[in-house]
Fold this protein.
Amino acid sequence: MRRIGGNERHRIELTVNGRSHAGEAEPRMLLSDFLRHRLGLYGTHVGCEHGVCGACTVIVDGRAVRSCTQYAIQAEGATIETVEGLADGERLNALQQAFHEHHGLQCGFCSAGILMSAVHFLKENPRPSEAAVRDMLSGHICRCTGYDGIVRAILDAAGTLKDQTKETIGE
Amino acid sequence: MKPVAFDYCRPESVEEATALLHELGGDAVLLAGGMSLGPMLNMRLVRPSVIVDINRIEGLDRIVLNDSVVIGAMARQGDVMADVNLLGEVPLLEAVLPHVGHFQTRNRGTFGGSVGHADPSAEIPLALVTLGGTVELTARRGVRRVPAAEFFHGVLTTARRADEMITALHWPRRRRRSGYAFEEVAQRHGDFAIAAVACMASLGEGGELAELRLAFGGVEDRPILADTSSFIGAPADGASAAEIAAKVADGLEPMEDIAASADYRRALARTLGLSVLERAFEQVAGS
């Protein structure tokens, strides 16, 4: 059984975007803070820090989850995907490109989390309806776009944009 | 917002976990999915000296279809939502789970965590009370099962003792000639329900009510199972539904808070109650 004192730092090894990483953390260090401040992966944003806004969403062992409501120590040995893993160098992946084309972001603060949710969501729902996309997005808060561009981008990336009736997505 | 420093323990078996709880008692807090505890820790509403992380106990997420349906405490809400065999046996959960948080929180949130946290508006506790399920509690000294209707004592307060952990929930399987329905009103989809109502209605051969379980969440300080005994034998029709909903809503003592007044909650309870009763009756008639 793992047992660590509150002020003890513990070495945590995990895989992020296909590479092994390690860093030290006290038990109370949030996974979001660990990714940012120990590993220097500042793409994951921290918004509300109580699991509501979705900005910090990353993929842990295949599932899109909040990184602000779990501790780095819990992710020991885990495989994590963050927004830094999406693009191939300067080349955006299909989902990022769709966000770019459909005005799926403005300030970009919420985007990292939404992209990671969408990656997992599309894996489970390769041909989602607009309603299903909106339901998934209910776990995120975006204050710039009004969500329409985000919905369109995700449907486009899934190849289902043309299946949707045009009036329901405001075209 | 960061939690206060806490010691961290990660038991690998129920035996290790219950031994820890025996040793630490009320100083320890069990960490399941962390979808409620995480925010409370970050906001420092709770300041435990020790956190017992039960995420790596093997088998605690088991799902077994026996005489009853057993859902392990660490079964993730999203996994149960995707389990069509299970949903076929507990149809109320199919109606309820889309309202439990969001895709991202259901990926992490657990059944045992939701029940152990005991938020008055939470849907899983309401469903368990509605169906007459039980909560399995394990301590070093043994295992006991508490009926859901007796488990919830008030806001974030349950029958769980400090040395016990929830290990599973036991759900009655679907019955013949029964209908199940759920509805809620929240400010946003996935948000805390201002009022939620669930029901199970079983009909006799003549279309009369043989069993009726109707429960309310978010209205009082815990899920409330209504007394519907005087309606057993009544016809399962729209007139009965209206009468039952009105009588039961009158008997509630709703909470008042920033989201809604007591009167508004009572009105919601009546309207949603009528709607779930009608839908449950129609389901049986149509089957």
